[in-house]
Write a structure and sequence with these properties.
Blueprint (H helix, E strand, L loop, with lengths): L16 E2 L2 H14 L6 E4 L7 H4 L5 E4 L3 H10 L7 E2 L16 E5 L5 H10 L6 E7 H8 L9 H7 L2 E9 L4 E2 L6 E8 L9 H13 L5 H4 L7 H4 L13 H12 L1
Parallel strand pairs: 2-3, 2-5, 3-4, 5-6
Antiparallel strand pairs: 1-8, 6-9, 7-9
Length: about 260
């Protein structure tokens, strides 16, 4: 039971509310350092509004809360946010109906955190910063580089567009109720002067196919996409996906499109 109301937490929605003031202040400090004061912000999954309490005075600030009970509670607690609390499924929301450009922040529900990141990819041109809390292993996976066991599909797809930085751990005891896992806060900052020189849809296909068989060489995992023996014999196809940088994946995409 949340301490501040009679609303029961819904485990099916991954509701573990952060109630450690020190951790909250560290997250808000990171938000203030990484997100321009004039930038629009959408907070995802605010729940009881622990983080919202630090941000609600911003004029360019909105909330997306799926649970009707908490959306109603937040309107009572933060009446100045009337018209800016969206009781909707973030994964189905057309973000540019709220703002044309927006930073995404939140203590993201762990059960949909990867889907949230794929949603960000769909809107990467409009999302300059993502900053928030994830299950630690998900945050580390997103921020990891080549030759790491954590390096995978999300790492590559997001790092095409963003610089990813893992900021700090959040212990289980910082939540009510405590989750079974350690959490971590990370930030994505969209790269400056980004020039896309690859087919984005095909790039995603290449990356996903490569990591779905990550123990195999690219010659084997991508054989359905290799059009000629000449391409097949290129040295780069002797490698496994975790050995390739983001730029190398872009290079392979361009090779396979020839």
């Amino acid at each position: 039971m949340a301490k501040h109301s009679n609303i029961k937490l819904d485990k099916s929605l991954g509701q573990h509310f952060l109630n450690d003031a020190h951790i909250l202040e560290k997250i808000v400090d990171a938000i203030n350092r990484n997100i321009d004061a004039k930038e629009n912000i959408i907070e995802v999954g605010p729940g009881a509004g622990a983080m919202t309490a630090y941000l609600y005075k911003r004029e360019n600030f909105s909330l997306v809360e799926f649970d009707q009970r908490w959306a109603d509670y937040l309107l009572t607690k933060f009446p100045n946010l009337k018209g800016r609390i969206y009781n909707l499924d973030f994964l189905k929301l057309e973000l540019d109906t709220i703002y044309n450009s927006m930073a995404i922040v939140g203590n993201f529900p762990y059960n949909i955190s990867s889907q949230i990141m794929f949603k960000v990819l769909d809107y990467q041109e409009k999302v300059p910063v993502v900053l928030g809390m994830f299950q630690k292993e998900v945050a580390e996976r997103i921020c990891s580089g080549p030759s790491s066991k954590d390096y995978g599909i999300l790492s590559v797809l997001l790092q095409v567009y963003y610089e990813a930085e893992y900021l700090f751990d959040v212990p289980r005891e910082a939540f009510n109720p405590p989750p079974k896992v350690v959490s971590g806060v990370m930030v994505l900052r969209r790269k400056q002067n980004l020039h896309i020189n690859h087919n984005e849809k095909f790039f995603k296909q290449v990356v996903k196919m490569a990591f779905q068989q990550r123990r195999k060489t690219l010659r084997n995992s991508l054989k359905a996409l290799i059009k000629s023996d000449e391409i097949k014999e290129l040295e780069i196809f002797n490698k496994r996906p975790e050995q390739l940088s983001v730029d190398a994946f872009i290079n392979i995409t361009n090779i396979l499109e020839q």
